[in-house]
Design a protein that fits this description.
Blueprint lengths: L3 H14 L3 E6 L5 E7 L2 H23 L1 H21 L6 E3 L3
Antiparallel strand pairs: 1-2, 2-3
Length: 97
């Protein structure tokens, strides 16, 4: 069972620590996530690149290279849409299928 109160507390502690971090967790509604980042561009870029590579590798193992590339393209299109529609301050977004 997920302790959402502890997840929220951990997120708040990370924000207060001034340490670089990336965190995401699904909310109780099962439809949205809470996501937060802190750190300089170089650190966050490296963390995100590693995350995307792992996501692509998992997709390739499960569904093949073509499906992995297609999923990554959809992922980047979604990120671009969020960038254009949001000022970056929002912490919730709809989960992708």
């Amino acid at each position: 069972m997920i302790d959402y109160k502890k997840a929220e507390q951990a997120y708040e502690l990370l924000k207060q620590s001034n340490a670089p971090f990336m965190v995401a967790y699904g909310n109780k509604d099962g439809e949205t996530i809470t996501f937060g980042v802190s750190g300089n561009y170089r650190i966050l870029r490296c963390c995100l690149a590693q995350l995307i590579a792992e996501m692509g590798n998992a997709m390739r193992r499960n569904r093949g290279e073509e499906a992995a590339i297609e999923e990554l393209e959809l992922f980047f299109a979604f990120a671009e849409e969020m960038l254009r529609e949001n000022d970056g301050e929002g912490e919730e977004c709809q989960m992708l299928n």
